[in-house]
Amino acid sequence: MFGAFFDSVVDRYSDLVLLMGLLVYYASINRFFYVVLTAVVMTGSVMVSYTRAPRRMHDSEVQGRLHGAPGAHGAADSSGRCSTAWRPCCGSSP
C-alpha cells in the first residue's frame, strides 16, 4: 500500500520537474502562450491524483459491500435459492 502511494508521489514530482523545466525554458525565450499552456498542464497533472483518490475510495467501498461476509446480505447460492432467511433479496421463491 505504501509502495503504491510512494510511486504515485514520485511520479507527480517527476512530472512537475519536467514541466517546470519547460516553463523556465519558454519564459526565457519569451513565449508567453507556451508558458501559460505549460502552467495549465502542470495544474492538470497535479489534479489527476486528487481526482483519482475519491474514485479509489468509492471503488473500495463498493468492493467491501459486494464482497462482504457470505450470505450476510441474503445472496443466492449456486442453485439460485436464497441462502438466508431473508428471502426478498433474491426476488425468487425457494
How would you describe this structure to a colleague?
The structure is a single chain. With 94 residues, this protein is mostly helical. The protein has a domain at 1-54. It has two helices and no strands. The chain has helices spanning 2-28, 32-66. Helix 1 (2-28) packs antiparallel against helix 2. The protein starts with a helix and ends in a 28-residue tail after the last helix. The relative contact order is 0.07.
* Backbone shape: elongated
Question: Uncertain regions: pLDDT < 50 for 5+ in a row?
Answer: none
Average predicted confidence as pLDDT: 73
How many strands, which pairing sense, and closed or not: the largest β-sheet?
none
- The amount of helix comes to 55-70%
Helices, by number, come to: 2
The ordered H/E elements are HH
Q: From the alpha-carbon coordinates, what is the Rg to the nearest angstrom?
A: 25 Å
- Class from secondary-structure proportions: mainly alpha
Number of strands: 0
Query: How much strand content do the residues show?
Result: under 5%
- For the terminal residues, how far apart are their CA atoms? 43 Å
Summarize the structure.
The protein is mostly helical and 94 residues long. The chain is 66% helix and 0% strand. The protein has a domain at 1-54.
Detail the topology: elements first, then pairings.
Elements: H1 2-28, H2 32-66
List keywords for this structure.
about 90 residues; about 65% helix; elongated; 2 helices; mainly alpha
